[in-house]
Amino acid sequence: MAPCLGFDPLKERNPKVMQASRQRGFTLIELLIVMVILGVLAAMVGPQLFSKVDDSKQKAAKVQIESLGTALAAYRLDVGRYPSRLEALRTNADNERLWAGPYLPKDVPADPWGNAYQYRRDGQSEYEIISYGADGQNGGEGIDADISSRQ
């Protein structure tokens, strides 16, 4: 078979192929500029988002303390006094005859920072539940501030 004179498919240019070959990807400089812009935005927005996380943990601790207070009130109505420890809200740890619990659907939770709540009982009629905040120690300010049922 003889080749057709004047037509060579390898040399013939397809307009669609030529347009695609003119389109190019992003250069390294363009990618670096975009990454710098994203880094600057993250540096500006990040701290504001983390402060919201700290505020939400403090609010969650307050809600948990209120929930524990409600369970303590139900315990006191049944037994006549507050328990010696918070675990008595889930199991009859004090071997009370009038215990009608469990007063909590799950075990006593840790505070939002993973520390145990501190429970103090002053006689028959007063109690205090405390979360020591982010630092887990008595005292502090900001996110390290103590959160108490008496506040």
UniProtKB/TrEMBL annotation:
It is a single-pass membrane protein. GO terms for cellular component: plasma membrane; type II protein secretion system complex. Belongs to the GSP G family. The chain crosses the membrane at residues 28-50. PROSITE patterns: PROKAR_NTER_METHYL. Residues 49-149 form the Type II secretion system protein GspG C-terminal domain. It comes from Allopseudospirillum japonicum. The keyword Transmembrane helix applies. Pfam families: N_methyl, T2SSG. It comes from the Bacteria. Gene3D superfamilies: Glycoprotein, Type 4 Pilin. Keywords: Cell inner membrane, Cell membrane, Membrane, Methylation, Transmembrane, Transmembrane helix. InterPro entries: Bac_GSPG_pilin, N_methyl_site, Pilin-like, T2SS_protein-GspG_C, Type2_sec_GspG. It is found in: Cell inner membrane. One of its GO terms (biological process) is protein secretion by the type II secretion system. This is Type II secretion system core protein G.
